[in-house]
Amino acid sequence: IPIHREVITMMKSLLKSVVAVMVLFMLDSSAWAAPSFKAGESYNVLTALHVVRKNEVYWVNYTRGEQKIPPGAKVTVNSIDNKRVDFAWMGKVYRFDYKNNDAGAPVDEMLAKFFSKEDPTPKIKAMSEKAQAQISRGATEGGMTKWQVLYSIGVPAYAGQSKTFNLRLKDVMSADQWIYHYNKFNRFTIRFANGKVQSRTE
Fold first, then answer.
1. Interatomic CA distance for residues 196 and 17, integer angstroms
2. Distance between CA atoms of 133 and 51, rounded to whole angstroms?
């Protein structure tokens, strides 16, 4: 039975649409793809980490810690489990409790909030001098982007109403309210509008 040209044209058009949707899906997935984290390998700190009690880091990321490990710092992972990663930086070993239970996304996607194979330094250096200075001193000021805040003070303890220990990076980025802890007793809130800091309240 002969097939009309119109039917063939329609089938080709439909096939192109299906392929286009598949490509878009693949691109969207890869944009948030997490590297595979392995002990013994080196990574770059992606978002600022804060150290307490000399060598401890927590997912809460207390911003009044004793030391800030900046984005771009080169670290070597010594060991990983479902809640904790031990890493070395500048000759010292740090214990990072990046989760407080086994819930949430896989380990690689959790660690991708904090570490990356890609060095963020070139992106930071490509920003304005003002933005670079804000990041260097740990500022959170009006007009800063979400990425600039992450580079400056790291991942918040809460994104919206959710604790971030079991959220992916894209989940954190989708929230327009981030809550940070200075310490166990004091916190502050950053609100965003159109992807930029609108306000900060204590």
1. 35
2. 21
Flag whether pLDDT at 164 surpasses 90.
yes
- Which residues 6+ apart lie within 8 Å of 74 measured at CB? 42, 43, 44, 89
CA distances from 36 to 6, 19, 76 (A): 48, 28, 14
State the Cα–Cα distance between residues 121 and 138, nearest whole angstrom.
15
Which residues touch 52 (CB under 8 Å, ≥6 apart)?
58, 62, 65, 66
Q: pLDDT class for 30, splitting at 50, 70, 90?
A: very low
Condensed to tens digits (0 to 9), the pLDDT of residues 74-102 reads: 999 999 988 999 999 999 999 999 987 76
Report the alpha-carbon distance of residue 106 to residue 17 in Å, rounded. Answer: 32
For residue 99, list its beta bridge partners.
none
